[in-house]
Amino acid sequence: MQSPPYFWPAVSVILVIGQGILLWFMGQVPICECGYVKFWHGITISSENSQHIADWYTFSHIIHGFAFYWLSKLIFPKMHWGARLALAIVAEAGWELFENTDFIINRYREVTISLDYFGDSVINSVFDTLWMVFGFIIAWRFPIMITVALAIAFELWTGFVIRDNLALNVVMLLYPLQAILDWQGGI
Question: pTM of the prediction?
Fold first, then answer.
């Protein structure tokens, strides 16, 4: 039996709303403590980073969408794309919730240049998931070579501009290297 056309979009919306509610219950601030919401905040070493709708780490979340699309297509090739998107939202929302625990917040502060990181605002975290959805849809609609080229371009560009990107972020969380930390700090 086929699901009604609105079923998977409704599930996706409910999952994202649930993520926001859980983050709020975890004690994350709804919006930046500065009192306003900006579409773009481009200063990474500031108290407003990870507090607004988009920032330099938005590119990493778009890449998550690319990866979740292709991974879900590989593992569940016959599954409806809407169901795969819902699974991707569960994965991304799960990461966002975990990323805002004391364990990960303290890990970022210990091993990266994010010394003043206190977690994401709810709006930033929810939009991180929505940016992942955007990446998932790009990967669904465009040829794989375009998504691969975009992922490489995003990684190179953010690595050049802010000395950080998805790959460096993963390395520094799992196996921090002093050479990377020194380079990121401009030493």
Answer: 0.94
